[in-house]
Structures are given as structure tokens and as C-alpha cells.
Write a sequence for this structure.
């Protein structure tokens, strides 16, 4: 009987990995990960990392399914081509970490697709997805919640041709950030930011389409909030975007070329719960007069709404009177 048990224990792992080799996908459970277990954070980090590494080397797709929640206590690293379809399963951070670190940028090669994933930063992770170097990588149908102060849901440091489509970001603390980008030629489509004090922090020439961001929480985090911040570089292109109830719609920190088309700027008075004298949002905020005059900003076919109280618009078009913003074929509330 003992011999039979020993034989079974030896055969099961061999049989398991033989089974893996016959299909085109793997799951975290095949490597020992356990869902819906708060105490499994450290073990899950190791097991899911093994699953990612195997998927990377074998070319198989890493999958999971909705309803599964994997607690992790450290970073998961992607260092090669990978396809991940997580089926709306959730990764939940239990410690300060960059939850998913991507470093698979190889010139001229596709890096894969990561989709159908939920990340809960849980008010403790330093970043949801951190791209050290990513080239030709696509993110699709991803939700990132629980973003803490001075942390971002998605940060792209280096690379190009990163495509982010249908991503949702939700801040869990004041000063949370949605997208932070420090490189060029990346594309963002159909992204929603809720309660991200800075929805987009852009440095470089990039493309944004149908980005909708708003501040909620009863307006308690509005002060100093920014829909779109530009640090340097350009040109930057925005099309059919929606800035909803921000202190600054656009915050320009250096000379830039910015092209905005079919944009909507709107304010929800329910969120501005304060004395009228304390409501002073700005459409285009410049760091100084030199930057205001030296930038090239073009707005067309847009609706630039304001906050009108007793016939007076409390929103300023710009904090610098002499600026370079050119508006055409647009409805500007004055």
C-alpha cells in the first residue's frame, strides 16, 4: 500500500504538467495559487509568478475566471511576450508594491496582450501596472481601483506603441492618479477615471480618444484637481474627451503643442459644495506667462462649459490673460 501511495504522489505532478502541455492555456491554480484567501498573499505571489513565467516561455495564454480574487503581497513581473486573459478575475494587493511590472520592450517585436483583469490596489500598492519598458503591448478591458495618494493606476516609463483600451480607474484616496506616461507614441482609447485627482499626467507626444474623467466623493477632493496635465514634449492629441468637474481642466507645465477636438468640459454643481467666493476653476492653467505665450494650443468643435451663478461664470478661461489658446467652431460659456 505504501508503495502505491508513493507512486501516486510521484505520478500526479508528472500527469499534471503533461496535461498542461496538451492545452493552449494555463491557470494560476495549476501552479498552486489559491483564490479568495486573504492569508495566501505571499504564496500566491510566487505561484502566479511561476504561471506568468511558464506562459512567457511556452507561448500559452494565462487565464482565470470571474469571481476569483487572488491576494498578492509583492510584484508580479512580466519579462517577455505574454498573453493574459484573466476572465475578470481580480488581483488584490496586501502590501506596498508595484502590482504588475512590465519589462518586455524589444524593438520590432510584439509584446502581447493583457486583458480582462481587475486590480485592486487596496489603498496600499504603489502602482497598479508599471511599465519599465514596453513596446507594442496592448491592455484591454482592465479595471484598477483603490488607488492611494500620489500613486497611479497605470504608469508607462519607457517604450512606445503601448495601447490601452477600455480601462477604468478609481481613486481610493485624495491625490490619486489615473495614467502617468513618460514616453511617446502611446494610444489611449475609451478610458474612464473616477476620483483621480490627476486623471492624466502626460510627458511626451501621445494620443487620447474618448477619455472621460470626473471628480465625485461629494466634491471633497476637487481642490487642485486636474483632468489633463502636460509636463513637456508634444504634440499631444485629444479627441472626444470629457473633463467633468475638475479644478483645472488642463494644466500646462511647459511649452507644448496641444490639439483638442470635440471636447466637452462640464461642471456638476452638486460637487462644488462651498461658498461661491471659493469656486474658481480654470480651463487652461499655465505655470507662467512665458509658457502661456510659447505654447501652441488649438481647440475646435468643442463645448467648453462653465459654472454660471447669478449670470456670472465662476470659471476662468485661463489664469494668464495673454495666452496662445486658439478656439474655433466651439461653444464657450462666458
Amino acid at each position: 500500500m505504501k508503495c502505491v501511495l508513493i507512486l501516486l504522489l510521484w505520478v500526479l505532478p508528472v500527469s499534471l504538467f503533461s496535461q498542461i502541455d496538451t492545452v493552449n492555456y494555463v491557470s494560476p491554480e495549476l501552479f498552486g495559487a489559491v483564490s479568495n484567501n486573504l492569508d495566501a498573499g505571499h504564496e500566491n505571489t510566487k505561484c502566479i509568478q511561476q504561471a506568468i513565467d511558464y506562459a512567457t516561455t511556452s507561448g500559452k495564454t494565462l487565464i482565470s475566471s470571474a469571481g476569483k480574487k487572488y491576494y498578492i503581497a509583492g510584484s508580479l513581473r512580466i519579462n517577455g511576450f505574454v498573453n493574459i486573459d484573466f476572465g475578470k478575475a481580480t488581483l488584490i494587493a496586501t502590501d506596498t508594491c508595484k502590482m504588475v511590472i512590465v519589462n518586455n520592450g524589444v524593438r520590432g517585436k510584439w509584446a502581447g496582450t493583457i486583458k480582462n483583469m481587475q486590480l485592486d490596489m487596496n489603498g496600499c500598492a504603489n502602482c497598479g501596472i508599471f511599465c519599465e519598458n514596453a513596446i507594442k503591448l496592448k491592455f484591454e478591458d482592465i479595471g484598477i481601483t483603490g488607488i492611494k495618494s500620489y500613486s497611479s493606476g497605470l504608469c508607462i516609463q519607457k517604450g512606445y506603441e503601448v495601447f490601452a483600451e477600455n480601462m477604468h480607474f478609481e481613486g481610493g484616496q485624495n491625490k490619486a492618479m489615473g495614467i502617468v506616461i513618460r514616453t511617446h507614441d502611446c494610444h489611449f482609447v475609451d478610458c474612464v477615471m473616477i476620483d483621480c485627482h490627476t486623471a492624466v499626467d502626460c510627458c511626451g507626444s501621445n494620443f487620447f480618444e474618448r477619455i472621460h474623467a470626473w471628480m465625485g466623493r461629494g466634491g471633497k477632493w476637487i481642490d487642485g484637481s486636474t483632468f489633463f496635465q502636460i509636463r513637456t514634449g508634444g504634440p499631444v492629441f485629444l479627441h472626444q474627451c470629457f473633463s467633468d468637474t475638475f479644478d483645472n481642466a488642463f494644466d500646462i507645465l511647459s511649452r507644448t503643442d496641444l490639439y483638442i477636438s470635440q471636447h466637452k468640459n462640464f461642471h456638476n454643481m452638486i460637487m462644488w459644495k462651498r461658498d461661491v467666493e471659493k469656486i474658481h476653476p480654470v480651463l487652461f492653467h499655465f505655470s507662467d506667462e512665458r509658457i502661456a505665450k510659447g505654447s501652441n494650443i488649438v481647440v475646435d468643435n468643442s463645448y467648453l462649459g462653465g459654472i454660471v451663478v447669478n449670470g456670472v461664470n465662476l470659471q476662468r478661461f485661463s489664469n494668464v490673460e495673454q495666452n496662445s489658446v486658439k478656439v474655433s467652431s466651439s461653444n464657450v460659456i462666458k
In short: The CA atoms of residues 102 and 321 lie 43 Å apart. The helical segments are 2-20, 41-58, 289-294. The chain has three helices and 28 strands. The mean pLDDT is 92.
